[in-house]
């Protein structure tokens, strides 16, 4: 009886302005690989430093074990991860950051947890977060929104450091829209989720690529792409404001009939107009966001465009569009 073949592992790393860390990270991962059949997919998401040259050096140093995708511009972290997932070929796929905050030595334990528990995905939870204030604030908000809109288990932390099964990867990459949210796609596809606690290190070089605008874009994607709850909220808000308007009309009538004193004059009128106009503009903006994203789908806006591919086994990445 032939022994069962050892599982293979692909490590997907989105790269953005990481010239100081990505070379050392690749060497650390392949010097002591978590599994015998381990390969790495680097996805350069429009870096402005020497990350391109460093990634090419990694391909030359580890032929057949490092695949390098260079995107045509900066598409965003989740788009870069999707490009990497499409290129991956391992039985298990680990997604991690490029800055050494995710310890390479923890990968074997994460993969073992996924295999032994039969999970489709295993997320990592950090004993102590080492992110900056802005990213910690964004993560806390994301956690609340994902719990409300995506039916995320309340105690599950949606870390960027995770292990995903081949079954789930194949389901995730079926999504071809221009604004992916990887964790939303995972939660939409499976409830078979594990979690393991790991160390979180300080960032070794550079600074986080997260900005307030990128966090806002991510929140919009969570709101608009994966739930109709904002539309329902708008409907209920409209009903509430309609009821408020009716109440004000009754109150005004009561003043005339029963002599009840109510605020009057230009100030009250201005306040009412501003409140109603603000709410209407928010609703219109929300509807415009849904319509705009639908237009992007119809116009076949690309999820990512791969300018170059180097290394690996020479196979081209799977098409982003069907």
TrEMBL record:
Gene3D superfamilies: Spore Coat Polysaccharide Biosynthesis Protein SpsA, Chain A
Keyword terms: Cell membrane, Glycosyltransferase, Lipopolysaccharide biosynthesis, Membrane, Transferase, Transmembrane, Transmembrane helix
Record flagged with keyword Cell membrane: yes
Biological process terms in GO annotation: lipopolysaccharide biosynthetic process
The Glycosyltransferase 2-like domain, residue ranges: 10-133
GO molecular function: undecaprenyl-phosphate 4-deoxy-4-formamido-L-arabinose transferase activity
Ranges that cross the membrane: 235-254, 266-287
CDD domains: DPM1_like_bac
GO cellular component: plasma membrane
Keyword Transferase in annotation: yes
Listed InterPro entries: Glyco_trans_2-like, Glycosyltransferase_2, Nucleotide-diphossugar_trans
Signal peptide boundaries: none
Record-given protein name: Glycosyl transferase family 2
Source organism (scientific name): Solidesulfovibrio fructosivorans JJ]
């Amino acid at each position: 009886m032939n022994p069962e073949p050892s599982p293979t592992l692909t490590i997907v790393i989105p790269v953005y302005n990481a010239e100081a860390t990505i070379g050392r990270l690749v060497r650390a991962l392949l010097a002591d690989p978590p599994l015998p059949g381990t390969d790495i997919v680097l996805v350069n998401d429009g870096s402005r430093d020497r990350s391109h040259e460093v990634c090419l050096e990694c391909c030359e140093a580890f032929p057949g074990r490092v695949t390098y995708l260079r995107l045509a511009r900066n598409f965003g972290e989740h788009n870069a991860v999707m490009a990497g997932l499409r290129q991956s070929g391992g039985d298990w796929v680990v997604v991690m950051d490029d800055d050494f905050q995710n310890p390479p030595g923890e990968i074997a334990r994460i993969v073992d947890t996924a295999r032994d528990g039969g999970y489709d995905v295993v997320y990592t939870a950090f004993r102590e977060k080492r992110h900056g204030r802005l990213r910690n604030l964004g993560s806390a908000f994301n956690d609340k929104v994902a719990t409300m809109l995506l039916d995320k288990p309340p105690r599950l932390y949606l870390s960027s450091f995770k292990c995903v099964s081949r079954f789930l990867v194949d389901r995730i990459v079926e999504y071809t829209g221009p604004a992916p949210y990887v964790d939303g796609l995972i939660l939409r596809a499976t409830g078979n989720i594990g979690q393991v606690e790991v160390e979180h290190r300080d960032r070794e070089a550079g600074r986080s690529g997260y900005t307030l605008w990128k966090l806002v874009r991510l929140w919009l994607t969570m709101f608009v792409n994966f739930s109709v709850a904002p539309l329902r909220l708008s409907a209920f808000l409209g009903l509430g404001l309609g009821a408020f308007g009716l109440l004000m009309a009754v109150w005004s009538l009561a003043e005339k009939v029963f002599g009840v004193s109510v605020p009057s004059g230009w100030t009250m009128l201005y306040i009412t107009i501003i409140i109603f106009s603000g709410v209407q503009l928010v609703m219109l903006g929300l509807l415009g966001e849904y319509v705009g994203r639908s237009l992007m789908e119809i116009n076949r806006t690309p999820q990512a465009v791969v300018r170059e591919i180097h290394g690996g086994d020479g196979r081209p990445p799977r098409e982003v569009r069907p």
